[in-house]
Design a protein that fits this description.
The structure holds 2 protein chains of 2 kinds.
Chain A: E1 2-6, H1 14-22, E2 26-30, E3 41-44, H2 50-59, H3 63-72, E4 77-80, H4 82-85, E5 90-91, E6 97-98, E7 105-109, E8 121-126, E9 128-129, E10 144-149, E11 151-155, E12 161-165, E13 171-177, E14 180-183, H5 193-202
Parallel strand pairs in A: 1-2, 1-3, 3-4, 4-14, 5-7
Antiparallel strand pairs in A: 5-6, 7-11, 8-10, 9-12, 12-13, 13-14
Chain B: E1 5-13, E2 16-21, E3 24-31, H1 32-41, E4 47-51, H2 63-71, E5 77-80, H3 86-94, E6 99-102, H4 104-108, H5 111-120, E7 125-133, E8 139-143, E9 148-153, H6 154-163, E10 168-173, H7 185-194, E11 200-203, H8 209-217, E12 222-225, H9 227-231, H10 236-245
Helix pairs in contact in B: 6-7, 8-10
The chains are: A alpha/beta, B alpha/beta.
């Protein structure tokens, strides 16, 4: 299984590549959008602000080739952290910015509901299953994954939600729309369940 | 609910994994990469890797080695040792560190903490404080791997670091380090009482799981430890099941 990890200058990609290899994939990091035509799965990673992320994707020519592969050729795509957020129509981090608009929704700042909730949300927290999805096969409900973020995805349609996480009044921690998937947490830093999730994605 | 963390610390000198007692008598006990692989399988919540001589030897952090370590590290990774500039921080994050631990330079250039927090976010800035009781019976900060007195009290410095934008405090008792006699609870309490808004990771002295429980009861958010994991049969997994039995929220562990 050949997996293309999109390198648009927004994070270190060593551990995601190695994690995919551990899960049995042939993963490669690419800065060339043409490579999307020669892979069976696509990972959109990312750490940083929404505005910078979109700017880099546009400047480096990823937007149209990515939409082509995902929407026309139905190649499964997994967005991780900022990569999930960029799937939205619009984000507000670093100024109001148009997103990839692959899953209808917006990305907004987390709003604490108690004094104990601090932003950014960092650490191990639970995922509550809202609906079944093969991405979470063999992953127990209410188990923990590693999060580092300040913004969250607010989908227009609740049907797109797979899991929520109990922080700031429950935010959406994973989403899907057909072959397009996104997780707010870091599977590559959440061994062993994160590896199970990556394996599920390879089999999606 | 966010979970309390159990964090092994790997001290790194030249190419080896080392451990000392009270920041002295370093023993080489293995290599870093195999240790990382072991901790991956033991489902630790995080790892801290510190190059203990880079700063004293006026060397840059070893970015290449950090890139090798991080690509095999499937848990969040904090890297410390030898950081002097914002450029060092940028290169460590690029090499795959999730957070950086800043110690000695903060006494010379406290503004660096603010600059790093502004550029990369508070979540990646760990202010590391090494403390020891002085003759006035106060906990005083030491820099340069515990060799240089700073004249600053630990709880005051912790507050200063919080104010300047640190996302976490890593608090180490120099006297307890490597002794496995238990964390210095008075030191922990003095800092957790002073620092209200950011987590305090406690380090130095853990010899059993009860010690970890005591530190958490004194409002530490995470417990770091080395000797207990290097030199005894105790494991981070067992630590978490012990803590869970005492009602502390920890990450569930899974056999897959």
């Amino acid at each position: 299984m050949s997996v293309c990890i999109i390198d648009y200058g927004m994070s270190n990609l060593g551990s995601i590549k190695r994690a995919l290899e551990e899960c049995g994939a042939e993963a490669f990091v690419s800065g060339d959008p043409h490579d999307l035509t020669r892979c069976e799965r696509i990972i959109l990673p990312g750490v940083g602000s929404f505005a910078d992320g979109m700017k880099n994707l546009i400047e480096r020519g990823w937007v149209e080739p990515l939409k082509q592969e995902v929407l026309k050729n139905k190649i499964p795509l997994l967005g991780i952290c900022l990569g999930m957020q960029l799937l939205a129509r619009r984000g507000y981090e670093g100024g109001e910015t148009q997103g990839l608009d692959l899953i209808p929704g917006e990305v907004r700042l987390l709003q604490p509901t108690s004094k104990n909730e601090r932003i950014p949300h960092i650490g191990w927290n639970e995922i509550y299953r809202i609906k079944d999805n093969p991405l979470f096969n063999h992953i127990p409900d209410h188990d923990d994954f590693y999060f580092v973020h300040s913004y969250h995805f607010v989908p227009d349609d609740k049907e797109n939600i797979i899991t929520q996480t109990p922080y700031c009044g429950e935010f959406v921690s994973s989403i899907h729309l057909n072959n397009i998937l996104g997780v707010q947490f870091h599977p590559e830093k959440s061994i062993p369940l994160g590896f199970q999730l990556l394996k599920n994605f390879l089999g999606y | 609910m966010l979970k309390v963390r159990v964090i092994p610390t790997l001290l790194w000198k030249d190419v080896g994994l080392v451990k000392g007692v009270s920041f002295d008598s370093w023993r080489r006990i293995g290599s870093i990469l195999p240790a990382i692989k072991v901790y991956n399988t033991r489902q630790v919540d995080e790892l801290i890797i510190v190059d203990i001589i880079a700063f004293r030897e006026k060397r840059d952090p070893d970015f290449e080695s950090v890139a090798d370590f991080s690509s095999e590290c499937f848990v969040p990774l904090t890297v410390g040792g030898g950081i002097r500039t914002i450029e060092d921080v940028k290169n460590l994050l690029r090499a795959g560190a999730d957070k950086v631990s800043i110690n000695s330079i903060s006494y010379e250039d406290p503004e660096l903490i603010t600059r790093v927090a502004r550029a990369f976010g508070s979540q990646c800035v760990v202010a590391s404080i090494d403390a020891k009781k002085n003759k006035n019976n106060e906990y005083e900060c030491y820099s340069h791997s515990g060799t240089k007195q700073t004249g600053i009290q630990a709880y005051l410095w912790a507050k200063e670091m919080e104010k300047r934008g640190a996302g976490e405090i890593l608090l180490t008792s120099i006297e307890r380090d490597g002794t496995m006699k238990g964390y210095d609870l008075d030191l922990i309490r003095s800092v957790t009482d002073a620092v209200k808004n950011i987590p305090v990771i406690t380090s130095g002295g853990a010899g059993n799981y009860q010690h970890m429980y005591q530190a958490l009861k004194n409002k530490a958010s995470a417990v770091a430890a080395a000797s207990i994991f290097h030199f005894t049969q105790q494991t981070p997994l067992e630590a978490k099941s012990f803590l869970s039995g005492k009602g502390i929220p920890v990450r569930k562990t899974r056999i897959i």
